[in-house]
Request: fold
Amino acid sequence: MKIKPLNDRVLVLRIEQEAKTSGGIIIPDTAKEKPQEGKVVGVGPGKVDDNGNRIPLEVKANDRVLFGKYSGTEIKIDGVEHLIMREDDILAIVQ
Reply:
Protein backbone atom coordinates (compact mmCIF):
# COMPACT_ATOMS: atom_id res chain seq x y z
CA MET A 1 0.00 0.00 0.00
CA LYS A 2 1.29 3.48 -0.86
CA ILE A 3 0.44 6.56 1.20
CA LYS A 4 0.99 10.16 0.06
CA PRO A 5 0.50 12.73 2.84
CA LEU A 6 -1.56 15.84 2.07
CA ASN A 7 -0.68 19.51 2.65
CA ASP A 8 1.85 19.92 5.50
CA ARG A 9 1.62 16.32 6.72
CA VAL A 10 4.65 14.03 7.05
CA LEU A 11 4.79 10.21 7.16
CA VAL A 12 7.40 9.00 9.68
CA LEU A 13 8.75 5.54 10.52
CA ARG A 14 9.95 5.27 14.14
CA ILE A 15 13.60 4.28 14.63
CA GLU A 16 13.99 1.78 17.48
CA GLN A 17 16.57 2.64 20.11
CA GLU A 18 19.08 0.23 21.62
CA ALA A 19 17.83 -2.06 24.37
CA LYS A 20 21.05 -1.65 26.35
CA THR A 21 22.27 1.40 28.29
CA SER A 22 25.82 2.73 28.05
CA GLY A 23 26.55 0.95 31.37
CA GLY A 24 25.55 -2.42 29.88
CA ILE A 25 22.14 -2.75 31.54
CA ILE A 26 19.53 -4.38 29.30
CA ILE A 27 16.17 -2.61 29.33
CA PRO A 28 13.15 -4.95 29.19
CA ASP A 29 10.38 -4.29 26.64
CA THR A 30 7.91 -3.35 29.38
CA ALA A 31 10.14 -0.49 30.61
CA LYS A 32 10.91 0.96 27.17
CA GLU A 33 9.28 4.15 25.98
CA LYS A 34 8.33 4.66 22.36
CA PRO A 35 11.18 6.28 20.45
CA GLN A 36 10.96 9.98 19.65
CA GLU A 37 13.20 9.70 16.62
CA GLY A 38 12.20 8.60 13.17
CA LYS A 39 12.90 8.56 9.45
CA VAL A 40 10.72 10.57 7.09
CA VAL A 41 9.14 8.24 4.55
CA GLY A 42 6.92 10.71 2.70
CA VAL A 43 5.98 14.40 2.73
CA GLY A 44 3.05 16.39 1.44
CA PRO A 45 3.35 19.28 -1.02
CA GLY A 46 3.18 21.96 1.72
CA LYS A 47 0.80 24.44 3.29
CA VAL A 48 -1.30 26.90 1.31
CA ASP A 49 -1.10 30.46 2.67
CA ASP A 50 -3.87 33.07 2.68
CA ASN A 51 -2.99 34.20 -0.87
CA GLY A 52 -3.21 30.69 -2.30
CA ASN A 53 0.57 30.21 -2.61
CA ARG A 54 2.01 26.85 -1.57
CA ILE A 55 4.75 26.96 1.08
CA PRO A 56 7.08 23.93 0.66
CA LEU A 57 8.11 21.83 3.67
CA GLU A 58 11.60 21.98 5.19
CA VAL A 59 11.80 18.23 5.77
CA LYS A 60 12.21 15.77 2.93
CA ALA A 61 12.17 12.00 2.50
CA ASN A 62 14.98 10.09 4.30
CA ASP A 63 15.59 12.88 6.88
CA ARG A 64 16.07 11.71 10.48
CA VAL A 65 13.83 13.78 12.72
CA LEU A 66 12.99 14.26 16.39
CA PHE A 67 9.35 14.71 17.40
CA GLY A 68 7.29 15.08 20.55
CA LYS A 69 6.32 12.07 22.65
CA TYR A 70 2.60 12.30 21.83
CA SER A 71 2.86 13.75 18.32
CA GLY A 72 1.04 12.41 15.31
CA THR A 73 -1.45 9.67 14.60
CA GLU A 74 -0.32 6.05 14.52
CA ILE A 75 -1.25 3.99 11.46
CA LYS A 76 -0.20 0.55 10.20
CA ILE A 77 1.05 0.16 6.65
CA ASP A 78 1.66 -3.45 5.61
CA GLY A 79 1.90 -4.42 9.31
CA VAL A 80 4.49 -1.75 10.19
CA GLU A 81 3.60 1.14 12.50
CA HIS A 82 4.07 4.63 11.08
CA LEU A 83 3.11 8.10 12.25
CA ILE A 84 1.38 10.82 10.27
CA MET A 85 2.01 14.25 11.75
CA ARG A 86 2.09 17.90 10.80
CA GLU A 87 5.46 19.45 10.07
CA ASP A 88 4.88 21.71 13.09
CA ASP A 89 5.06 18.61 15.35
CA ILE A 90 8.64 17.90 14.20
CA LEU A 91 11.13 19.44 16.64
CA ALA A 92 14.41 19.02 14.74
CA ILE A 93 16.22 17.36 11.84
CA VAL A 94 19.15 15.17 12.97
CA GLN A 95 22.25 15.86 10.88
